[in-house]
Amino acid sequence: MAVTVFDIDGVLADVRHRLHHLEGRPKDWNAFFAAAVDDPVLDPGRAAVLEAHAAGSTIVYVTGRPRRCRRDTVDWLRRFGMPDGDLHMRPNHDRRPARFYKADVISKLARNTELVAVIDDDDQVVAHLRDLGLPVLHATWMREEPGQEQLDLLEQVQEDEGRT
Length: 164
Description:
globular; five-stranded parallel sheet; 5 strands; alpha/beta; Rossmann fold
């Protein structure tokens, strides 16, 4: 079975409207995740997942969002017409950096399937997965739009606090 793995935040979902919840101390993680239901879709990400699905790849979603956000995440994926697929979400109290959490999940998938590609936007996740020899496509489409400094904030809190 050929599998293509997609991250959600920054690949399929535009998170920029909710990054302000992470700017201060303490960070308002509950508000950050609650606002995910209002994320606009990133058209290049949606096109990539639909193309992979049409090519016969099984779609798997691996996100750093906590499991408590599962219903909202599934509803969001359906609302924007994403293909059905397994959804792997971070255990609620797992605070590892995203690169380690995702590497664990994706490495297990790669042992039992033909991993076509992993599509992720986080520089550190991409570098770590490449170091492990996994096929990764770096999703940069959200970075090509205004608001880069906000994305740097997201990447830093992902690394420091392991929340998304």
